[in-house]
Target: Sulfate transport system permease protein CysW
Amino acid sequence: MERELSHQHHVQYKSPVTESKGVKILFITVVYAFLILFLLIPLIAVFSKAFEKGWSSYLLAISHPDTLAAIKLTVFIVVVTLPLQMIFGVSAAWLITKFNFRGKRLLTTVIDLPFAVSPVIAGLVFVLLFGSNGLLGPWLMANGWKVIYSVPGMILATIFVTFPFIARELIPFMQHEGIHEEEASLTLGANGWKTFFFVTLPNIKWALFYGVILAGARAIGEFGAVSVVSGHIRGMTNTMPLHIEILYNEYQFQAAFAVASLMAFVAVITLIIKQIIQQRDHRLGKRST
Model:
């Protein structure tokens, strides 16, 4: 019996970090090869094609009236949708992490719905609801409200495809934080609103900011759902992704890649900000421990 116990005591289970050097090199090679092939090379190709004819052609392409209109519309949609997403994300995360109620699991599942549903299908659903032959379309049009093939429909489609991001960033963070600080605040006499603004919100601000960055990046790059409901009207309902598609289909490759380079630049900036936030959270976590 003693021998068995001593044998069990001396058994060591291999950790992935104790694998041979060859295995480590193999995994590193595979990962970096994948990143170079599917991320770095396409990014380089986009920027090289954008500047293929020099700075003058590049500036001419991004300063074209239709391009400027697409940029303005994209920014407008992001500015409108993000505050709404913040309200929904914070409310949903607060509700799910702080309260127990019937339908809690269903709500958590429904929040993930845009991840599972194709954006094109989402766009078609909005057409069936708000189109001229849809359920609500005739009534809306009779009262002077046009949703499909106009900006309101594009905003609705963008809200649908981006609303999980902020909630999904906040829910695990708020579950990890627990409710002890909120309970202490309520015990000391603060009401719910004061507790939220002075206790909860300062604790979740960086997770919220991270979710806003992801939702904003997704809103800028959304194509499928917005394409279905936009109508592709030049200078009116074309966002940057839709404008790129039109330029490419018209064989204006340099102009298409010039606009694409702007979106790629925004994506790179988003990744840098994301990395800064992650490093900051890591440092704060180390200090707290």
Q: What stands out?
A: Residues 16-50 form one domain. The CA atoms of residues 5 and 11 lie 10 Å apart. DSSP finds 15 helices and no strands in the chain. The mean pLDDT is 85.
